[in-house]
Amino acid sequence: MRVIDLHVHILPGLDDGPRWLDESLELARAAVAGGTHTLAATPHVRSDWPTAPEEMEHAVESLRAQLAAAEIPLTLLTGGEIAFDALPELDEATLKRFGLGGNPRWLLLETPYSGWPLGLDDAIAELASHGFAVVLAHPERNGDIAARPERLRPLVDAGMLVQLTAASLDGRAGPHARRTAFRLLDLELAHVVATDAHAPAIRETGIEGARRALDDDALFDWLTEQVPAAVVAGEPIPARPPRPTRRLGFAGFGR
After folding, report:
1. How far is CA 119 from the centre of its chain?
2. What CA–CA distance (Å, rounded) separates 60 from 16?
3. Confidence of residue 251 (pLDDT cuts 50, 70, 90)
4. 53-60: long-range contacts (C-beta < 8 A, 24 or more apart)?
5. In angstroms, what CA-CA distances link 138 with 6, 93, 146?
6. Which of 34, 127, 232, 235 could make an SS bond with 206 (beta carbons 3.0 to 4.6 A apart)?
7. What's the CA angle centered on 159, arms 157 and 164, to 5 degrees?
8. Phi and psi of 164, rounded to 5°?
């Protein structure tokens, strides 16, 4: 299993992820042990964690050096998890520096945990007019989307990608998030699985449990390697593997 994890809070001291370098290195070791060879450092960019791009870039450069010194075989990329309400405060140059996986075109946009963000459709359209595309982070944990996951269809049809959290698939995020995650997969409205890891023991970085819950190796590879690789490289998103004969959502429950 080879994984590119596009959503990880691994940079020490920037947000609610690791506080110290040794915790970041422990998280990195856990990621490698779980099959991850590349990950994007995505610190929060929002009012309570107002990360500046130069802070993120400096922390990534420093952690890369520490990974090399510790002989941890992990490729570390730049990025950021941008809150929807922070968008008006960020100019185009800043957004590009927070580009997901170092690709200035793609932005990881945080889904609020409650409520449908008013103006989200317009904001994504405005970003698209400036050459940006959006990966929407963990919408399965939002109650309004859980009640009506189909509302993401127009945004996906317009080019948005959806990222599910591994803990939602294997049940660690609770039954409602799990149900919604599999429903989004059934509707073909999900494109990436990432850990959103903050520490080795909190939203763990290993995603073997998600692979087992999904029970579809071809789809898992598409969600965790093929699509993330395309995002990082700026290449077209590869076609989704054919659907299995069973329904993913039904098969996923009770595992």
Report:
1. 22
2. 16
3. very low
4. 53/80, 53/94, 53/97, 53/98, 55/14, 56/11, 56/14, 56/80, 56/97, 56/98, 57/97, 59/11, 59/12, 59/13, 59/14, 60/11
5. 12, 25, 11
6. 34
7. 90
8. -95, 150
What are the pLDDT digits (tens) for 61-86?
999 999 999 999 999 999 999 999 99
**In a 10 Å sphere around its CB, with 0-12 CB exposed, 13-18 middle and 19+ buried, how is residue 20 labelled?**
exposed
Distance CA 178, CA 18 (A): 26
Q: Provide the residue type at 223 as one letter.
A: L
Residues 14, 235 contacting (CB under 8 angstroms): no
CATH class of the domain at 3-252:
alpha beta
* 69-102: b (≥16 Cβ within 10 Å) or e: eeeeebebbbbbbbbbebbeebeeeebbbbbbbb
Q: Determine phi and psi for 172, rounding to 5 degrees.
A: -65, -25
